Structure formats: structure tokens, C-alpha cells
């Protein structure tokens, strides 16, 4: 196959810019923490521009690497998005009180979402908890593989969004506010930092073959940010990205010549329509598309992985094969310089209003091994230090029974669990606590905006400085909410 | 489990933003704080759920009226007027015991309550003596969207010379207030491109452009609009807008195998025809909501075309996903979901309110009590009737046509004759074949064998049976003739084909996908406790939203008219909506029309005119348009012309950096906005430019299948147990307009899907427009684009000849509606030469791939110069100038 752009050597596909320069040279080595530190140092030298901020003059938006505000610890992120509300009290947050009160009336006040099917009867966790690793982190028997990496994860047991419905809580966790229309987390991070890879989209979304999660494409929307920071959805089946291959007769030089003429036409058109950033984003998207033809096929080609790796992710098991494949793809993308990857479970996968005794173990089986494998794999490749792995959804579940005929649990956004690994998060710790029944977060509460502030901090971004100016207002991910950087869970403050 | 509830605890809501327009926040204490305006919205969001809503009064406390606060609950008075520090309500909120849970009341809201108590806890007016049913305050009733539509006076503006019609005056008033005015008018080429895409979803031909540019008559532009509106292309474009809101799909959805809705297309055609005939929208709405009630049952008689149309129109209410025909679904939930989704479609399309939020509880932000949801549901209940549910197939109405029946019977009789002749001939052939087989046997056996065959099976002796078993070839079934003799088989096949061909000429049975009532059945509607269909509570009567009727008695749907065989509810409701007095319908409609013309709604949340929706940027203009629309007989073409002849519409694209800064979203309309083509317009435009567009209207949708790579393309599925059997030629059907391509929920056509084709779950209130690399990849490498680029090149060659310069010029005119600039032409010529040389050199690659199905178009086989021209054509349809319209 002829390459459309011969100037791209295998070496610099990781950062992928055509002309080598000092900046390029330095940035291209930026795989370890040293590279990140370098980017920061470069900023001190004034070599890298500050994060783009629109002004009266037309501004260019791109996905090239940007200097952070301070020395970053994290470089990339994989978010395993567990939509529906995994039951924290059955998976992450053991509550002996529940075992004692099983079937008895709940002693406190419960905030129900659906009182119709609610009962005030306590439902004990039907599964046993065990301590794992040197840290002694307690996890339920539904998550045996996660137990193997217990010493690498930071488990937060005091998550809170306080808005008891999927849609709003998804917006809170994924876009910062409960209202529709704001940019997603991945968009903010790529807006702030660009991406190491210029031959793959900076932000990629890997959906489940069965269905999109609740709120669908808005999970990876750029909201009011320029379109270039929009997540690019990868198809859930092969071919993961359509139209990646030019037909043989166009491959190489002919297509390159076409794209060159197209670029000239589009730039002339953009000059006549200054300020229409979508035009600029589309010019960039052609350039990205051209580079993706080579890079994406390679990045998404799992045949290059060893059998041992595939087995580790559970690709040999029908139950785990799909989610495992997507976790492995996420690692390959991050490895190649993609900034933010989100992997989704299907629509309401964890929404166990009923049938939890059967449903939850099934759900856990599909994700447990691949999720743990991702942590192990990143660690063994030395990527975990700079890659945040996030595992969690928009809510947890209530300690009481919903639907007595076929027991389940109702929504609970007042206290739930999620875990993070790598990228500067402490390892082998559990942070925060819910009340004795697991209903409400009571100790070291982590709101969605605290989580976001902490993440941005690890990426070297100041949550108050990462702003987008529009309509004479400075818009930000936190949007004025009092996000605190949860330094207690960071390896370095 | 799907949940439509919007149980939002209002902690994070920017209340300033929600209520600012209603001046909830008093400025500098200048305004006196009153319960209804300032305090109640706070309590409604945080407290009513347990203290007042649906009879729920925990601790005996109801917070819906000031006097209830004073009288208090089990713990005594909730407030002591004048003394916030002694008020129990304040103490409980301050201590963060209330509201329970982590979502606390923001300090600024508590401060408002405290200041209100301190100032004596005033109300705006005496409170009602009796509380019957849900309470709606005057403040809530005062919300802009619930006010009657009145035709406002047209403002006087400074730039009177820029006012072509009142629309301009309303817009200029606000622009001038910021020191701006309109941008200069668009030049003619840009204008004809804009209006043709706007009204047709297609580019103008070069000839149309030149004719318009050359037409210097004063009414040239008006004539252009008239011509576009008179074309059937118009309905295909604007009908599609309505199909979005209506949630049109050619499949049932809900379950994975997504069964096809064979007859849905008749509704699609009805919509397109209604737009083309400029059917007044009051009628259009009545027909869609209650067409069946305008036709006298029974429907299993021969109906007139008008009656058929009325029934087809009710397909609107049959568009929601319907899983009730599938195996293994929970019928209670699935039926309830059909009704819930239908109500969502009706309410977002015609009321512009998020009524669905009130399915489980009172709407948190809008004055829509939960009972309202069920009052609305009661209007539709008789037709849906969950107790006597009819699955999708059972709701199909066979169109009885006596003439067709008679014809079919005649044809069948003829075909039977051929069948008989065939049977006779088969028998003869079998005889001959048996003789042949007998002859092959040893001579001594032949007589016995012959006797065995001629003996009826039941009477055969054991010996005969044995003999026949030994020589199985003696027993020949007519269907096996082909195994023995090819020639005979062909002879038989001629009969079969004749019969089949004849039968194929039978008029086919046609069905209508309709919503109807069964006369005499009038099921009750019950409020579902917390939205749960298994927990019915009190029965409710059909009515419109309470907040819309200052005089409550007018909200009700009249009791059943004894002369009407059906309940008459939907018809009565449709007439309410279109009476001219309804505050929402016309506003919601004209706002959508405006949105499609300008790329932005006056209310930019077209499906939500409530508290959480955006406020109108130009409320007077919206009302003026709504009045104008209704006074003009609810005719859309008239409104199109009005809007399109405004100077506001005819502006050039906004290029003013000062306005960019002050008004980044162009809410003041100080210039046109650049808009990307929607998915369908893009595909159709490519086909138009390539010359391949098949303008055939209406009828069964063009099928969509998965190609070998798993991408959904136009094509007839040809699989045998999953094995691909080859491509079936489509004979030009594949080039029809996108609105006629099958809209199967599980098979979005890849070309459209990539460019943000909406998913109908259950409908689409406003489309998103994304810009991502897969779109570029599609335009670079997709077979559809590559093929069309080659057709485009052939067309250019046919129209411009061999001269490169002429070709370039023609290609530019076809794709972009303008001649190339000299520099562009030079670049293009250079490109053509280089590309042709390249193709000349790599001729080896450009050969037919023998592994590709013969019916599949393979791009890349043109002679070098034409192939180079195809590359140029591809660039043109991939360019931003093609993808975006000014």
C-alpha cells in the first residue's frame, strides 16, 4: 500500500506532525512523565502557547499539543462508562448493617426515585466481600479480577451528584452540569491539551454493539466548544471506522493531490468566511482523515496483539470478548497518543430495578476481567503512571428493595462508588464513606465537580483557568461550582 | 427499565437563569417579595414533592399556600410572619435537615424566604379559599408561552428603507438597539442557491442560476420563490422536516430484529402531498390527530380516496416504536410505552412542552401537574385501549376495492387454466419418462414392474412394493421431471412462468396503517401512581393542559356526541388546538418554520417552550408570525413567501467581527448564517449534480441492506441463511431522493448516518450537526461518493466536451453555481493534467476486480483523462463551499 504522506515515518506517528522542529522533537518523545515535564518546561521557556483563548481576532483551534498550566501527572485517560448505576453496595461498599437488617424496615429516611415500587425493606447484599492485596481493599466476590489489581486502584466510596435520574446525573458526571448542552469531559481535556497524536482523533468514543448509552451522542458532544473537540465515535463492530481505505487507484499520490487541491479551495473559502470555526474544523478533519487512513487501521488492528494479551482481556470468552476488545482498543489508542477514550456499556446496562440477583453477576462478568486487564496491561507497559483509568457510572443504588416480586434496587445518586487508577491517583486506597447503609455519602463527599477539578489538576490544568470565552463570558467545566481538588487521593498534591 | 421521569432536585440549577426572565429575583429590594412570585417556585422545586403534591403532606404540612405555612403541620406553624428566626421552616432549612438528602437549598434561595418572612410574608393577592386539584399560580399563568397570541404592533425603526415587510421591522428594532443593522443583501447567485436548498433541498442547475441572474424584472425573486414552491421537490424537502418531528420510521423498533412497517410509507406520502398541495395546517393537524373520526365506520367497505387519505393521516399516531407485536416483551410495559411515546410526539410537536416529564409526578419546573398528563392521555385512550390492545398487524386496514377483487378473481381463473394445462402435460411427460425407465430394466421384469406402477399404491402386493423399492426410478413425481429430462423440464417451466407472470398482474391488496377506535368501546383512563401502569388510581377525563385555560371549564373535551360512533375526543382536541385561540400550537409551528429558514428558532428549543427551554429572542415577532399564519388560513406557502421576501432572509452571510463578538450565536439576525447541509440534502445534492437523481416520487421505500463490510447501503437484501448471494440490480431506484429510502431504525443508511441522520427515539425535535473525521473519510473513500463523482465527470464530459477549460467551468457551475476564479481554473487544469498522467501510469491497478459482484459499480475504470475529471468532481462535492450554504 502506498502511503499518502511519505513524510510520516513509523517513528513519529505518535505525534505525527510533518515537519520536525525542536518543539516537535521534544514533544515526540513525550511518552513518559519526562515528556510531560518537558512540555511544562517548554512553556516556561515560552515555547508553547498558552491554551487557546478566543479573542476578537479570529482564532485557530486545533488538536496540537498545548502546554498545561502546571506540571501534569496524567497524560491520557480511559473512562469505562458504566451507564445505568452499578450497585455500589453489592460491589464496592460493604455494609454489615445491611446484613443484620435484611428484610427488616429501613431505620432511616430513604430518598426514593420510584416510590411506586419502593419498599422500606432493607435488602442485604447477597454477595460476600473479601479483602484483597496488601492494601486489604474490600471488594465483593462479583469482582474477582478487580481484586487482583486492588493495590493499583483508588476507590471512591463517597460519590455524589444529588440528582436522582439518569439523564441529569449523566450530564453531571460527563459534562459538569445537570443541564443539556455543555461540552463533555473529553472535549474539555482535548481543548485544554490537544493530543499527542495528530493521526487519530484526540477524543474517541467506543460504544456497545447493542445500543448507545442514555443521552446517546451527547455523551461525547463538544457542546459550545469548537467542533474540533468533538468525540469521534468508533463503530461497535468491524469495520470500526468506515471508509478507512482508499480504493487502490486513488491510494497514495492521486488522493494526496486531491486533498491538496481541496485544502486550497477550503482555505480560500474560509478566508471569505472568517469566524466560521466549523469550516476550520472541517479543513482539519480532512487532514486528520488522511492521516487516519494509515494510523487508525493499525491502531484498531488487534491481530498485532499476543494471544496472552488477548486472553488477559477475555477475548477468548464470549461473555467478555466484546467489552475486552474495546478495552484493548482503548489501550492501543492511548498508546498511540489519543488523549481521551470513553468506553460505554449499553443503554441502562446497570439499571437493576429488578432481577438484580441474576442481572448483576451477569453484568459484572462481562466487565470485571477486561477492566482489571486494562489496569494490569497499562501497568506492565509503563503507561499506568500517566494514564488515568476511570470506572464508574452516573449513580449507585438504594439499600432497600425495589420490586419485591423480582427484587432490585432503585437509583441512588446521594452516595455511590467509582474507581480510578493511574495518572497520579493513589494506589490501593479507599476514600470517603457512605452512611452505615450505603445510602448517602457522609464522609469526604466527592461531588462530580470535585472529581472534575481533581482530574483537570492531574492533567496539569487549573480548573479555574481552563475557560472558553464566548459571548463575553468565560465558560468552564466547573461553571462556578465549588470544585475542590481532592488531594487526599493523589500521589503528589 | 426506561424511565421518563425527571426527578430533578433543583440544587444545581441556575435559578437566576431559569427565572430571570420572570424577574423572580428582586432587584435591590426595590420590589416587594410575594409568595406567588418569589417563594413558591423555590418551594415547588424543593419541597412540594412531599409537602403538597398529589395529596402528599408529610408531617401534615402542605406548602402550596401561604396560609398553609402559617397554620403549619404536626410540628406547629411553619412560619411566623415578620420573624424568620422564629420560623420552623427556616430553622429546618438552615440546619440542612430539610430538604432531606444531600441536595440542599442554595443560600440565596433561603435568603429570599427569610427576607419574605421578615417583610411580613405577603401574598400578591388573596389566596383561594378552597384548593381543588392542582394549584397553578398567576405567576405561572403569566409565563410568556401561555399568553394568548395577539398580533403586536409593528415597531418603527430608524432604517425604514431596510424594511421590506414587518419581519424586518421586528428584527431591526433589536439590531438597532445594539447599534447594528442588516448585512448587505446576498448576491443573486448565493441567493438562488440558498432558496433552492431551503425549499427543495437541492442545488439550482446552472441554467436556473443564469436565468435568475439575467432576470432584471422587479419580481424576479418572487417568481423564483413561486416556481420553487410549486414544484413537487418542495414537499419532499419540507415534508421531511415534519417527518422528523413526527418520528417517522419504516420499522417498529423496540426489539432487536426491528420488524419492518410495510405500510408506513403511505403516511410519508400523505405528508409530502399535503405540503405540496399547501393543505392548511389546521386541517393537516385535524387529519393527523383524528382523520378516522372524519370517516364513517366501518372501514372494511370500499372507501373513497378522500376517506383513505383521512385514515392514512392518522399514521401520525402510529409512528412511535411499537414492540407489542414481538414475542417475549412485557406487554404491560410495551403498550404503555407506545402510548407514552405517542404522547411525547404529540406534545413536543404541537404543544412544544415537555409534558412527558409529568408522567410520574408533577412537572418540576412547568405548571403541568401529573393529572394533566393523564387528562391528555384520556384523549388518546379510546383508540389505544390497553385492555383490548391491537397489535400492529391487527391495526392494519385492508383497502377494499371491488374492481380490483373482480380483476384478481378473473386473473386467478386464467392462471388456474394454465396450472391445469401444466398438470396435464406433466402427467404425459411422466408417462413417457416411466416408459423410458421401464425400458432400461431387464426385459423379464418389465411386465411385472409395469403392473406394479399401474396398481394404485394402496392395493399393491408386498411383492410389487418390493419391486418398486428395488427400482426407485420408476416412481416419478411430476416435480422430479427435471432430474430425468432437461428438455421436458423446460417445457414445464414455460407453463409455470406463464402462470406466475399472469398472477403478478393481479392488483395487490393494499393496507393502511391507521389509528382507529372501535365504536362503543370507551375505556377509562386512570392516573398511574408515580407513572406505574400497574398502579392505577383515580379515573380522569380528557382535557388539555390546565395552565392554558384561565377559565378552567374550557379545558375539557366535551362528553361524547351520541351521533358520533367514535369517542370524538381526538377530533375535539384537534379543533381546540387549531381554533386560533390556543396559545401554543401556532407559536410552536411558526417557530419551527422559522428555524428551518434561518437555522435557528426564535425559541431555540423548539420542543420546549417551558421554563427550562430558551426564551424567545423576538417574542413579538413570534406572535406576529403566528397571527399572520392563522389569519392567512394556516397556509404555509404564504408564510414561506412572507419570510423569504423579507430583507432579513435575503442578507448576505454575516461577516461583521463586531457582531461576532457581541452576538456570537447571531440571535439578532444581523446577517445570514452559514449552514451545513443536512444528511438528506447532501446525498440528494450529490445525486443532482451527478445527473443521476431519480425524481420518481412516492411509494414503497427503497430498501436498505448491509453490504459485505457491514455498512448500510441501498440494496435488496439477498442472503440465504446469512450467505451473501449476490447483488440485485436496482434499476435506478438506488438514486431516488433520500426521503424515499427506507428509514429502518436499526439500519441507518451509512451516507446519511455519518452526517447526523437523527435516531427516532421516538422523534427528533432538532437536528445536531457534527464535524468529525469519519465524514471526511466518507467523502474521500466511500463507494457512493466515488461512483457519483464518476457519473458527474461523465456528465461534464457530455455537456462540455473534451476541452479541459470548458470541463472545469461546467463542473464548477454544476456543483457550486458559479464559474471558477482564474486562479481556481488554473489550479484545476494543472490538477487534471497531473492526475491524468498519474492514472495513465498506474493503468495496471485500474482493472475490473473479478471478485467484485458484476452488478456492483466499480469506480476507477475510466480512461485517464475522465478519471482525472472524476477526481476533480469528487473534490467539488467534498468542498466546504458545496457542504455549506450561505
Short description:
By secondary structure, chain A is an alpha/beta fold. Chain A has helices at 22-28, 33-44, 88-91, 96-100, 144-148, 166-175, 185-193, 253-272, 277-299, 307-312, 318-335, 356-380, 448-458; strands at residues 76-81, 118-122, 129-132, 137-140, 153-160, 203-206, 232-234, 340-344, 387-392, 396-397, 400-402, 411-412, 416-421, 429-431, 433-434, 441-443, 446-447, 467-470, 473-476.
Helix and strand arrangement:
The complex is a heterodimer of chains A (493) and B (886).
Chain A: H1 22-28, H2 33-44, E1 76-81, H3 88-91, H4 96-100, E2 118-122, E3 129-132, E4 137-140, H5 144-148, E5 153-160, H6 166-175, H7 185-193, E6 203-206, E7 232-234, H8 253-272, H9 277-299, H10 307-312, H11 318-335, E8 340-344, H12 356-380, E9 387-392, E10 396-397, E11 400-402, E12 411-412, E13 416-421, E14 429-431, E15 433-434, E16 441-443, E17 446-447, H13 448-458, E18 467-470, E19 473-476
Helix pairs in contact in A: 1-2, 8-9, 11-12
Chain B: H1 15-19, H2 35-46, H3 66-71, H4 88-94, H5 107-118, H6 138-141, H7 166-177, H8 188-200, H9 206-214, H10 220-230, H11 232-246, H12 265-276, H13 281-290, H14 305-313, H15 331-351, H16 370-384, E1 396-398, H17 402-440, H18 446-454, H19 462-470, H20 481-484, H21 486-504, E2 511-513, E3 525-528, E4 536-540, H22 569-577, H23 585-598, H24 619-631, H25 636-644, H26 657-662, E5 675-676, H27 679-690, E6 704-706, E7 712-714, E8 719-720, E9 723-724, H28 750-754, H29 773-781, H30 783-800, H31 804-816, H32 822-841, H33 864-878, H34 880-883, E10 884-885
Antiparallel strand pairs in B: 1-2, 3-4, 5-10, 6-7, 8-9
Helix pairs in contact in B: 2-5, 7-24, 8-9, 8-10, 11-12, 13-14, 13-22, 17-21, 18-19, 23-24, 27-30, 30-31, 30-33, 31-32, 31-33, 32-33
